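Supplementary Methods S3. Input chains for the assembly prediction are listed below.
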Amino acid sequence: MSNILNVSPSPHQHSDDSTRKLMLGVIIALAPSLAASIYFFGTGAIIITLTSVISCVAFEYLIQKFLMKQKPSISDGSAIVTGLLLAFNVPSGLPVYILILGALFAIGIAKMSFGGLGNNPFNPAIVGRIFLLISFPVQMTTWPKPTGFHPVTADAVTGATPLGIINEGLRNGETISQLMDKVPSNLHMFFGYMGGSMGEISALAIIIGGIYLLWKRIISWHIPVSILVSMFIFTGILWLIRPEQFTDPVFQLLTGGVLLGAVFMATDYVTSPMSHKGMIIYGIGIGVMTVLIRNWGAFPEGVSFAILTMNAFTPLINMFIKPSRFGKEVKNG
Amino acid sequence: MSFTILNTIIMLSLLGMVAAVILYVIAQRFKVIEDPRIDIVADTLPGANCGGCGFAGCRSLAEALVKADSLEGLLCPPGGSETMAKIAVILDRQPAAVEPKVAVVRCNGTPENCARITNYDGAINCRVAHSLYRGTTACQYGCLGCGDCVTACKFDAMVMDPVTKLPVIFDDKCVACGACVKACPRNIIELRKKSRKDRKIYVSCVNRDKGGPAKKACNVACIGCGKCVKVCAYDAITVTDNLAFIDSSKCKMCRKCVAECPTGAIIELNFPVREQTEASRLEPDVKE
Amino acid sequence: MFKSFPKGGIHPPENKMTAGNPIEVLPVPSAVTIPLAQHIGAPAVAIVAKGDEVKTGQLIATAKGFVSANIHSPVSGKVVKIDTTIDTTGYKQPAVFIEVSGDEWVDTIDRSQVIEKEIKLDREAIINKCMECGIVGLGGATFPTHVKMGIPAGKKCDLLIINGVECEPYLTSDHRLMLENGEEILTGVSIIMKALGVEKAIVGIEANKPDAIKSLSDLTSGFKGISIQPLKVKYPQGGEKQLIKACCNREVPSGKLPLDVNVVVQNVGTAYAVYEAVQKNKPLFERVVTVTGKHLPKPGNMKVRIGTPVSALIEAAGGMPDDTGKIVNGGPMMGKALADLDVPVTKGTSGIILFPSEESKRSEVTPCIRCGKCVTACAMGLEPWYLSAASEREMFDKTEAAKITDCMECGSCSFVCPANRPLLDYIRLGKSTVMRMIRERNTK
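Predicted structure tokens for the full assembly:
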């Protein structure tokens, strides 16, 4: 016999999936949002994205090579995804050094210090974003207006997010009906004509990416749908009770990072539950907590805090919410 | 203002007192009376929780030691006679005789000696490979090379040799806890009596096949010919199921069997280099 | 809409290249090796000695104990020796070696091609016949059929399910058998129904075999109580519990047997063997084996005598391609990789698959990313990631609590894992350890 036979336990076939392919799929799904943010924010978006991705990958490589003394595994693409998501969660005008600091925190503290891919309890991109939000509150809430590559006049460089306008306005005693005139229309917000973090503004682009992820079976529908539905129902109830104090559910879903969070951040494999039942509980938790933070918390936006909190509950959900076993509850006709 | 402060102080003090009473009552109610010597003995033990003694951990052994009437049969293999002597003093009992032992790997199936005929591609775990099939060689008894024993060793006394694909035991670190012996699905590792200068003579094979197939599978297999049995003056060697075994308690390290073995399955280690004359080879090493 | 099992499942590429190849009869080899342990249960005991002349179909080893099966000589010739041979796993097994001369059959075997439909024997006689003829389940588990037919006191059975799913990729032996010997199979099904005393039988067939579904459906009019159930193409549709759930919506409870929901499952190949045993008095000494592989020159379905070396099958299929990297006995999902080509075909060999070297190596194992794909894929609703990790760390009591014993080792979890983790390798280790722990506990 010319060659030595391989022997292994069954199965002897494997699907085409690999970690790298899944990450590549996520990167492809993020492409429409990247295109949208470049369209709306111009060169700033390109600089932020490149800086974030390059620094995340570099930090992961350096930490693995010199601190952990392992074979660097940056080729799996998870650092690229973290970099993209971190970029999408910051304003396009953020100073580059702050962003690099955020990338260091996201990769170094949130991911590698727990042992690298697969071991981090919290979504690195969200940890990075919250670290920046708390450390640099001014820079992190200075939102350039979505003007694309067109030059703008000096006084109109920055503006507030729709959620910021509502939050600020309610505190000043204005009513919702007055405030709704100050924010962009739902249609505008759907396409992305609003202030906000780079990747979160265009609902359309995120939905396209989400459909791609679902089509390729990279994510299942459970987490995004449960987040969006629970938010819609919760804000809908509030809106029906007190329409003068609470905004309508469609506005809530289109603003802020809800879609980005539901489609890309909450569905992060490592930090979300593994059974479908667990995913739904996790999603509902995020939806409810987001509404609570938005309406009663100090920050106008609460998606990332909600995801981070539910990340912490994920091991607990995994432990107690088991998939329904075959042959456990017997219903024989 | 002062009233508030006073109120706070009184409230907290009351709360503290109530909590203290509750704690005291509970502590008294559920008090566990334990022999204080258990702690002392447990501190004397190495604390590696290796399980070599047969108990769940060092503390379990300490409890058993304190409870037992004599130290016979209770042994901390890593601690050895030194530790057991200390414990005997603490417990005021006669120390049991401890024979120092060391683990040896009874397989010499390097890729050179024992041809690899398949490539194992499953999980790197000896027990998985063992339950799957014979292994990468034609020998169904030999080392699988996945290193379960190395993983089991808590004393860093083992490594896998990347060239020979066999585990190597560092005698100075081995405490004969027996974890590797339990981990090996093929019972290749044996605990043998430790002799002076770590000298060793043992049959480095566990193949129980008849001579022909054994030799075909591996150049250095024991073929059960029994020549070593005949040459041994101390009745230390027995052959069962086509496999020779040297009883380490009877072996006097004369090295006659090593020269006699036609396949080189008997291995001598840490001996001074022999003079390459026929006479000296057959002369027993009287100084041993 | 095709019926299916409710949870989990995967869609591996089918690769059923030999579906159109009719069954060809492989010439009798010059020598055969008959292992004495070809079935689940105690190995048979040889009753021939060195130098004995045997005829094709002659009993050469008798069942030892209740769960065991007779073994018959597949050839005529002389017993050369009774020694050990290596089985699929490479470990040594006792076996009878026979040198072939001619092909003289025992004269009680009816070798005519006439299809005998009328069942003359009664219940007891059928079960006895299956026992005498050494019939075992031919789906792969090789459980002695007569044991399955004898329903213990206190249990009852009202439905027979025939497994014609063949959900394993590559394999087509059952498919061809259903196409070419439909009437015999349905007669066999009627025989098993009579033995079990049931009025109804369902033949479950995956929808990727429309020709087999059609030809069997056309034939059912001549048989009472037999219906054909097309099933969705999804692995592991042929898992016993999955098949029962899909066919009649009964869920076998965890740790129980199909008989606990009044069902018995048999394979189509077994039904054919039962037909041959009961109607033609022919013991089980040959079976259909799919020999296939992407680079094999002449893949096909062959009727092979038990004991033929695998190398002879590969030779008949055009010889082994140079780039062969792995040879699997059985299906690609649950079969065993061969370490040696001289191992004989046994009663449980359903296929021989040659994988080219680029498909034969597992990819590099990377860290678990907790994607949960294994949980989604598991047809038993288990958590493979957890069972695997706990087994790897030897926390066997935890795996027992997580019902590792429910695992049927279908391999779906390892198949889908994007990190290429050897999930099933460790689960299998944990499962066997837990089974041993349970046995020890029960004997105490």
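Chain C touches chain B at residues 86, 88-92, 326, 336-337, 339-340, 360-362, 392, 422, 425-426, 428-429, 432 (CB under 8 Å). Chain C has a mean pLDDT of 91.
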